[in-house]
Amino acid sequence: MMRVAAVLAVAVALVAAVIAEETGGDDAPRPHIFMVIVDDFGWAEVGYHRSEEYKQDVQTPTIDALVQEGIELNRHYVHYACTPNPCQPGCGMPQNMTGVAEHLQSAGYATHFVGKWDVGMTTPQHTPKGRGYDTSLNYFGHGNWMWSEAEWQGSYNHRSDLPPCEPPACFKDFWETDKPAAELNGTQYEEAIFRDRVYSILEQHDPSTPLFLTYASKVAHYPLQAPIEYQEKFSFIEEPHRRVYHAMVAFLDDNLANFTSLLKSKGMWNNTLMVLTSDNGGYVKSFLGDCDNNTSHGYACFNGEAGANYPLQGGKYSTLEGGVRVNAFVSGGFVPEERRGTREDEMVHVADWYATFAALAGVDPTDHRAAQHNLPPIDSLNIWPLLSGANVSSPRQTLLIDPHALIWGKWKVLHGNVIEANWGGPQYPNASTADDPIENYSRNCSQGCLYNVHDDPSERTDLAASEPEQLQTMLQMLQLQAQSIWSQPIGQIDPACSTAAMDRYNGFIGPWLDVDGQLL
């Protein structure tokens, strides 16, 4: 689902005209860009969002230090869930839309992708290579098993065993640029494989060439798995789901320490812009099964309550702040010195990195190919003037979350039935978690609920009764902007996808249409 708001389209069209002014002209240095996307990363799963009293079960020293050296993005918004099955032909980004890596590649950037893709694989053009990445090491779906790269296939209700997973029951989901990653499959813990690949890219990179590196971590999406030595660091946590979740986050934190240290040793950090964001809020669903305790790899957890978003309300799948307002920051030496160690309370959306990265690279972000195929323009705004300190307000003042939720400045309106309408506590376990999951709660906003999410990010005070005129204004804006939503048609799962996995890729999923000029 994408929205096409006329006012934003006009703003985006102006970006190309002011790129030189905003980035310092044609001679301005083009930064290395290191984009880190964390999966299902709860708001309360970082030290900088915890009070000292409740920091015991969070070990994120690297992330906390990067925030202190950079800019905390306190109102960074995303969508509340990920995309459909990769074997659905319409899954992910439409074929004739241009990815941001394509723009940066055209500007002379070396481009690499490592981690979770989850935006399509119908044809080779849908893969990272087809979207502008020189190299990639990725899986295509929502999640996979981290010791075997086998498809996860969703939750397993009330199962305590690891399901057998060999073709044709399920396939491997692991891909290297233009072929299955067969040589790396099953060699070690998946995040360690990703770590080694990112480290190799950085080691081999020529610092004189601008770099665009996207690391979309498997942390901390189901199924939850982590090396046993990391699980043992959190042995004081009784609940296995939470123990493994924190172990995964700690592994990620160590990875980031390795990457940033290497960037510094190569002299690249001073000209690097690092961006970290979660894809959505932490998972707050009820348990659907126990964790399996494998003696060689420790616990593996299939599904259930894991993420903590305190003090925000709700979580993944919800339009409440816990679902759409996420951990995010920028860091690196490219951040102006006077902006380091600050918190930005202006609104930013994850889509805004598209226009921002293009502006920093000195290229026009306009998607001309999409226009030629009657697809909507990008909904992205250049936020570098805000981050650099040139502007004090964000160009992003309006955000349509879905047809039932809209943010405008400090105001947020919700309409209809709102799911996951409850709060967890400051440390797990606590009220409204596993024994009484947040997903059990909903709120009736059929007449509209109104919140000031700047002053009340926890959405505890509904102002609909005290601000009736503001409520009506917001409801009218919501109705108008909802009409601008453009939906990508999603087809049924194509059996030809499995046929290609069996006959062409020896048990790995991958593109199945327009491969070598033929339909499989």
Key phrases:
Sulfatase N-terminal domain-containing protein; alpha/beta; 13 helices; 520 residues; 10-stranded mixed sheet; Alkaline_phosphatase_core_sf; Alkaline Phosphatase, subunit A; single chain; 4-stranded antiparallel sheet
What does this structure look like?
InterPro entries: Alkaline_phosphatase_core_sf, ARSB, Sulfatase_N. Keywords: Calcium, Glycoprotein, Metal-binding, Signal. It comes from Monosiga brevicollis. Pfam families: Sulfatase. The protein has 520 residues and is α/β, with parallel strands linked by helices. The chain has a single domain, classed as Alkaline Phosphatase, subunit A, CATH 3.40.720. Helix content is 24%, strand content 18%. The strands form five sheets. A ten-stranded mixed beta sheet has the order 8-7-6-5-9-2-11-14-3-15, sandwiched between helices. Helix 5 packs parallel to helix 7. The chain starts with a strand and ends in a 17-residue tail after the last helix.
Q: Would you spell out the secondary-structure blueprint of this structure?
A:
Blueprint lengths: L1 E2 L2 H8 L1 H9 L8 E7 L22 H9 L1 E3 L2 E2 L22 H7 L3 E7 L18 E5 L35 E2 L2 E2 L9 H15 L6 E6 L7 E2 L2 H5 L7 H26 L6 E7 L12 E4 L3 E4 L19 H4 L3 E4 L10 E3 L3 E2 L2 H10 L6 H5 L11 H5 L9 E5 L2 E4 L2 E9 L22 E11 L15 H15 L2 E2 L8 H9 L17
Parallel strand pairs: 2-9, 2-11, 3-15, 4-16, 5-6, 5-9
Antiparallel strand pairs: 1-21, 3-14, 6-7, 7-8, 10-13, 11-14, 12-13, 17-18, 18-19, 19-20
Helix pairs in contact: 5-7
Q: What is the fourth-level CATH superfamily?
A: Alkaline Phosphatase, subunit A
What would you report as the Rg, rounded to the nearest angstrom?
22 Å
Main β-sheet, spatial strand arrangement: 8-7-6-5-9-2-11-14-3-15
What ranges have pLDDT less than 50 throughout 5 or more consecutive residues? Answer: 1-25
Strand content: 15-25%
Supply the number of structural domains.
Answer: 1
Major sheet summary line: 10 strands, mixed
